[in-house]
Structures are given as C-alpha cells and as structure tokens.
Amino acid sequence: MKKITARFISTCAETGLRIGKGEEMLYDYDTKKCYCRSSQQFNNQDVDRSTRDMVQANEEAYFDNLGNFL
Q: What strands, in cross-sheet order, belong to the sheet with 33-35?
C-alpha cells in the first residue's frame, strides 16, 4: 500500500466516505482499494511506518557504535 494523491473522485473502501480529487489517500495496489484519511487502515499505516523507522534508526545507531566496542 502507498499514500498517494487522488487523481479522481473515489470512495473509501472502509468508511464509504468520498475522497475528493487532490486529497491524500492510501491505495492498495493488490486489491485496488483506496482508504481515506479517517479510516483505520490509513491510520494503522502511519503507526507501521513510524515503528519501522524507529527500528531502522536503532539498528543504524547500533552498527555505528559497534566499532567503538571492537
């Protein structure tokens, strides 16, 4: 899934709300469904991304400091 800008008027697959042209939405390329900003799917994507970014930052910090211990 990817956050994109709507090029067409769409309907959220979860909430049924209208997604206007130019609004940010989450698009699932596998199922071809879109989700509006107020949907649970959209908000969970933000949590997943922030968790992934935090884990990546911790791994980078660990390997950056690994040389200090060797």
A: 2-5, 24-28, 33-35
